[in-house]
Amino acid sequence: MCCYFGPSGSGKTTLLNVIGGLDRYDTGDLVINGKSTKNFKETDWDAYRNNSVGFIFQNYNLISHLSIIANVELGINLSGMPAKERHEKAIEALTQVGLKEHINKRPNQLSGGQMQRVAIARAIANDPDILLCDEPTGALDTETSEQIMKLIKSISKDRLIIMVTHNPDLAKEYATRTVRFQDGKILSDTNPYKPTNEKNTFKLKRTKMSYWNAIKLSFTNIMTKKWQTVLTAFASSIRIISIAVVLALSNGFQKQIDSTMSKALAKYPVSIAQTATDMNGSSNNKDDDDKNVKNKGYVTAKQSEKQQNTHKNNISQAYVNYIKKINPNYANNISYERGVNLNLLSKVNGKVNRVQFSQADPNSSQAQAAAQAQAMSSVGVGPPVFPTTLKAKKGSFLKQNYQLLSGSWPTKSTDLVLVTDNKNTVNINALKNLGFDVKNDNKLKFKKLIGKEFRIVSHNN
Question: What is the C-alpha to C-alpha distance for residues 19 and 37, in angstroms, rounded to an integer?
Fold first, then answer.
């Protein structure tokens, strides 16, 4: 038996943890039966701790809700030993420490010395090669300490025992080798080891706990703390339900916001014009340098900023055919505008006059009207055209967005619809261009508007 003693903080427990594979050394080497541990992996250290080393702690570290035989069996669970053999090993270890008649008691029914004996039985049950004792008598009285030391001394006949203590007298009385520590250094050693080329006789034994045994231990632990488990499960359920409710409300609110935005934006249709202008292009095309350049003997041809920001869309018949086949779920109502001058005629005060669908001032020159129409067309603004519904079951654009004031909903491509704003007003120029003699703020009865007919004259005629 080798005993390390010294004041607190001298490094005794650290050395014990390194030997037991709990801590890792930075320099040097730990050699076990000629086997270096420098290249040990974590799985190697686990196998070493499970089968080659036993631990005896100052505070016993027994599980209070298990019987003492169950505590001893717990120490050899990781060996993969069958249940019957495991039970026999535990009884044998408890008999060796003199507690055979107490195997069914709980730790709280034992004295301090008896609990330390249980800890010793747990450490030796798996028959380890090395037994590490971290102040095994630190929490015991003098008489009980001597009993425990005699027990450890008898066990040392079969295996190496490394013990840490504060008591140098105890170390000298029972140990065959004593090492005095201070500030992480060895001050004295009664039987120093001389390194030799020792043959490697160490073999790692790899074992693991059975799946069924792990489930059984988990279930036993749950059943011994039923109310704690119930309360923990209840609190966890509340947290999970709360998170689910918050996520559901958040998802619901987001869907409602998306739906509201979709309905609001649906009133502002997407317009694809022949000529489009990039409104943000002017801010992105600013020259970094406004300084005058030197005369280099040449000029550079360059488009104006307006020309650079203008894009011409290739709206071909193939593109129009593609739009007609679009999924109604994306866009169900599509209108088409073509830049064609229609020869429209209508009776005005008993005379046949030419009329037009336009909001331009009828008293302005034709050139001004054409320029205004071209400017409006360049940004996708033009005379309103009744949209074509791709799928009738998904609803009518007019019926969903407008209220019928008089007459009936259009059923043919030649039916015309006069659209007012929410105050029942119509642009005066639009009415004048349709042949109505009106002045500002004049009121027209619906019956004067409903039923008015127009004729189209072919250009060939």
Answer: 10
pLDDT over 80 at 213, yes or no: no
If one counts every other C-beta atom within 10 angstroms of the C-beta of residue 138, the result is 15
- Report how far residue 41's alpha carbon sits from residue 38's, in angstroms, rounded to the nearest whole number: 9
CA distance 227 to 222: 9
Please choose, from the candidates 222, 224, 218, the residue with its C-alpha nearest in 3D space to the C-alpha of residue 233.
222
205 and 224 within one domain? no
DSSP category for residue 334: E
pLDDT reading at 416 higher than 80 = yes
CA pair distance 162, 93, nearest whole angstrom: 19
Residue bearing the bigger pLDDT, 444 or 264 = 444
**pLDDT for 12:** 87
- What confidence category does residue 374 fall into, taking pLDDT thresholds of 50, 70 and 90? very low
- Assign residue 389 a region (left: φ > 0; alpha: ψ between -120 and 50; beta: otherwise): beta
Among residues 185, 219, 253, the one where a domain terminates is 253
Task: Quote the pTM value.
Answer: 0.50
Q: Is residue 301 part of a domain?
A: no
CA 421 to chain centre: 50
280 within a domain of the structure (yes/no): no
Instruction: Please indicate, yes or no, if residue 31 is contained in any of the structural domains.
Output: yes
**Is the model more confident about 34 or about 377?**
34
CB 56 within 8 Å of CB 149: no
232: domain range? 211-253
Q: Within this chain, do residues 162 and 233 fall inside the same structural domain, yes or no?
A: no
Which CATH number covers residue 89? 3.40.50.300
Q: Does some domain include residue 341?
A: yes
Q: Cβ(454)–Cβ(416) under 8 Å?
A: yes
Q: What is the pLDDT of residue 243?
A: 93
